[in-house]
Design a protein that fits this description.
Blueprint lengths: L3 H17 L2 E9 L7 E9 L2 E9 L4 E7 H11 L4 E8 L3 E6 L5 E6 L11 H6 L7 H6 L14 H20 L12 E6 L5 H13 L4 E7 L2 H13 L5 E5 L12 E5 L5 H11 L4 E5 L17 H4 L2 H22 L2 E7 L10 E7 L7 H14 L7 H13 L14
Parallel strand pairs: 8-9, 8-11, 9-10, 11-12
Antiparallel strand pairs: 1-2, 1-5, 2-3, 3-4, 5-6, 6-7, 12-14, 13-14
Bound molecules: S-adenosylmethionine.
């Protein structure tokens, strides 16, 4: 028979902590049977403004979650303490309380100094939806990612995850660029999203910088299709998205202001190169591209030994063309003074086109001889005569000519 007094006392302490705002967490452990979860972790969350005790049931293969309304907590605790779990720890900002029961059911309650004194965030949305908390509901709903009840539509769950993941990446990159909340700028940051399509990631970017990071930003989405520009502008106006606008234009030629960041996600073929060039020319501190189709280099690729035997397979040749295109893009960006990073954008199970090149400007452009040489050597090795970013080489060669520099590379004999 369980000794009820410590259990009742523990339940009472939990109840008081939940009521007086000192509750931090509760953990149940040492289950009496293998059928029970190994552990239950409980924290206080607000769901649509209503306090709930959110339980994470830790099982050997997966976690399950369950939410209890406050009036349900006392009965739930009675069922658990000593009956299902032999240990429980209640952490409050003033004291920690530990319930311990032995195999014979003899229980005791001990208290300690608080192991932590900081209350946890009660924002359930943040935990479940990362960057896409409730403040994103207006545009997510407008883009039909959320249904009328604020739930993610099943057909849009991948897109929702993709936006979230993208915003996490961009938030790290923004930190890397020094765009933190504490740093106040004289004028708003200026971002361009080239080939923005329906604007999922453009609205996301604006949401991250304006609503989450509380910084002044002007985001312009550039899109070739006027119908998409019309609908995205309409939604921006409808939700009062200050600083967000969409313009119709071509990535290569659209008029752009000086930029802090240029982003181009899944812009087709060499539109990604046009975007990279525009980013470099506009002095962007940050350039982020997620290339899409890679058609330019494939017909040019040579089949140097010992790669020839592998490249006779069409699929391998295609992968090699992607590898070469994105590898050269990263090298060009490095030559233009950027520190580059190539990472996976979306999980490979959804699309093989999942690379992202992120570049942060750190050095003077086009002065690092070794960076330029790496481009020329790789092109020579791959048999690539022309790639869309060669314009940058020409640009540099003009500058060099004006400064009286050489016009041919002495090693490769390629035009500088
Ligand atoms: C595959 S969608 C990607 C949309 C968005 N960036 C995303 O990742 O969700 C590519 C978009 O880029 C636009 N686009 C392609 N080439 C373009 C160009 N040269 N100038 C402007 N828009 C372009 C297309 O119309 C299309 O809407």
């Amino acid at each position: 028979m369980t000794n009820l007094e410590p259990a009742q006392h523990f339940a009472q302490k939990t109840n008081s902590a939940l009521t007086d705002g000192t509750f931090i967490r509760l953990v149940m452990s040492r289950p009496v049977s293998k059928e029970l979860p190994q552990k239950i972790m409980a924290r206080l969350v607000r769901l649509r403004g209503v306090p709930n005790l959110s339980l994470t049931l830790r099982n050997s293969t997966q976690d399950m979650t369950k939410n209890l309304l406050m009036p349900q907590v006392a009965d739930w605790l009675k069922e658990q303490l000593g009956e299902a779990f032999r240990s429980a720890l209640l952490c409050t900002t003033t004291r920690d309380w530990q319930f311990i029961s032995n195999e014979a059911g003899v229980a005791r309650l001990v208290d300690h100094k608080p192991s932590e004194t900081q209350l946890l965030s009660q924002d359930h949305d943040k935990k479940a939806f990362g960057m896409l908390d409730s403040s994103a509901a207006d545009w997510l709903h407008g883009l039909e990612i959320l249904d009328r009840d604020g739930r993610v539509r099943a057909s849009m769950a991948d897109k929702h995850r993709q936006i979230n993941h993208y915003l996490e990446i961009v938030s790290h990159l923004a930190k890397d660029c020094g765009w933190t909340e504490s740093l106040k700028h004289d004028s708003p940051l200026r971002f361009a999203d080239m080939g923005c399509g329906k604007g999922y990631l453009t609205f996301g970017l604006w949401h991250l910088i304006t609503r989450l990071q509380k910084q002044a930003v002007r985001v312009v989405g550039v899109e070739a299709r006027p119908d998409l520009v019309h609908t995205t502008n309409k939604l921006a106006k409808q939700i009062g998205a200050n600083g967000l606008e969409f313009v119709q234009g071509d990535i290569a030629t659209v008029k752009l202001p000086p930029l802090d960041a240029l982003i181009a996600l899944h812009a087709c073929n060499t539109a990604t190169d046009d975007a990279i060039k525009r980013g470099i020319e506009s002095g962007a501190k940050l350039i982020v591209v997620a290339p899409c189709c890679h058609k330019e280099l494939r017909p040019q690729l040579g089949k140097p030994e010992p790669l020839a035997a592998v490249l006779r397979h069409g699929l391998m040749e295609e992968r090699m063309a992607e590898w070469a295109t994105d590898g050269l893009r990263a090298l060009f960006l490095e030559w233009a003074g950027y520190r580059t990073k190539i990472m996976e954008f979306v999980s490979g199970e959804h699309t093989p086109k999942n690379l992202m090149i992120a570049a942060v400007r750190e050095r003077e452009a086009f002065v690092d001889e070794s960076a330029r040489k790496r481009i020329l050597e790789l092109k020579l090795f791959l048999g690539v005569e022309h790639c869309a970013l060669d314009g940058l080489l020409a640009e540099c060669s003009r500058t060099r000519a004006q400064q009286g520099g050489p016009s041919k590379d002495p090693q490769t004999n390629q035009t500088l």
